[in-house]
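Moderator note: this is an archived Q&A kept for reference. The question asked for a predicted structure of one protein chain; the sequence and the answer are reproduced below.
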Amino acid sequence: MNEEIDFILDTAKEAMNKAIDHLIKELRSIRAGKASPAMLANVQVDYYGASTPLGQVANVNTPDARTISIQPWEKNMLQEIEKAIMVANLGFNPMNNGENIIINVPPLTEERRRELAKQAKAEAEHAKVGVRNARKEANNDIKKTDISDDMKKNAEADIQDLTNQFIKQIEEKLVVKESEIMTV
């Protein structure tokens, strides 16, 4: 095929991969019943005047399925970390024991599980929009090229095949996350 078409296809594939990567990151932050350090990934701590991710000021781990343990690298950061978790409005009640912060993750109610499933669907829909936007940009780029109409049609068909593959991947990831959320 044409080098220009190959470049357009590669660019579209890269954009679609970014949409999938973003979806994976977002789905990881959606709570699924058991404790995970990823649940606190978006928490920003005021570290000497700079907004810093929690993972850069403390060790975050899960000693069991219902507990998150946060051990700051500096003891004077305990209150700041506790405050940052409260401000993040994740529905957790951090407990400070002077050495580290412990968060007991309560079991999810059926209603909360449904809300989280809806949130996962919304994230999947955002990823699909990203994939479709990449398809639209690629098709527009193909139309601007000066190649034969048959080659343009073939390239657009390749873009559509790529789009279908990525939409299918998104659906598969959503099904896995939904089953993870709804499992008691």
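Archived answer notes: Residues 110-144 form the longest helix (35 residues).
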